[in-house]
Amino acid sequence: MKKEIAKALLGIKAVFLSPAKPFTWASGILSPIYCDNRLVLSYPQVRRQVEAALAELLRTHYPGCELVAGTATAGIPHAALVAELLNLPMAYVRAKAKDHGRGNQIEGKIDRGQRVVVIEDLISTAGSAVDAVQALRDAGARVLGIASIFTYGMEKGEKRLMDADVRNISLTDFHTLAEVAAQEGYIKPDDIRKLEAFWKNPADDSWTRL
C-alpha cells in the first residue's frame, strides 16, 4: 500500500522530487522534495484511492473511532470524505480560535470522552497536528491518534509526536517515496543518497554536493 500511494502521489506531482535543483523552504532550508497533497483533490481516481486507504487505516488501527477531525486547512476535505466513507461524524480544528462570534477553535459537535482520530495531509515537524490534538483534548475528546497521507518521518516531527503522546500512522513515507521514485524513473538511483542525507539533517545542505 505504501508503494502504491507513493506512486500515485508522484504521478500527479503532489510530491515532486528535484535533487539537482532543490526547493527553498520558508525557513531557508534547501530541500530536494516539495509536497502538496492538496492536488489529490483534483484527481478523482487518486482521491478515491487515498480516501479509501485512509478509511481502511482507521478501520484497522483505530477501530474505536467515533469522530473524524480534520486539521485546517488541508486536512479538512480528507476528513470529510473519510467520515462519509465510514458513516461517522466529522469536525475540524482551526489553527487558532476565532476572534469573533463564539470564538471557536473546533468547528462541529464534540462530546466529552468521544474517541477521535485526527486527519492530516502531511507530517513534517508535526506542529499543526499536535496543536490540533491538544485542542481536542482540551475540549474533552479522547484522541486515539493521527492518520496522515504522507510523513517525512524526521527526528523533529517524531520527537514532537512522542512528547505529545500521540501516534501517527501514514499511508506512505519519505523512504518509500524515494525508493519508488528511483524505480519509476523520476530520479536517478544515485539521487537516493542525496535524499537520505537531506532526511538525516535538513539544516545541513552538504547533501547538494554529493
Characterize the structure shown.
By secondary structure, the protein is α/β, with parallel strands linked by helices. 39% of the residues lie in helices and 22% in strands. A hairpin with a 5-residue loop joins strand 2 and strand 3. Helix 2 packs across helix 3 and helix 6 packs antiparallel against helix 7. The longest helix is centred in the N-terminal third of the chain and has 18 residues. The chain is globular and about 55 Å long. The model has no long low-confidence stretch (mean pLDDT 94).
Descriptive labels:
210 residues, alpha/beta, six-stranded mixed β-sheet, 39% helix
Q: Helix count?
A: 7
Structure class:
alpha/beta
Shape: globular
Q: Profile the largest sheet.
A: 6 strands, mixed
Instruction: Tell me the span between the first and last alpha carbons.
Output: 31 Å
Report the β-strand fraction as a percent range: 15-25%
For the largest beta sheet, what order do the strands appear in spatially?
Answer: 7-6-5-8-9-10
Rg is 17 Å
Number-wise, the strands total 10
Proportion of helical residues: 25-40%
Poorly predicted ranges? none
Q: Helix and strand succession?
A: HEEEEHEHEEEHEHEHH
* Average of per-residue pLDDT values: 94
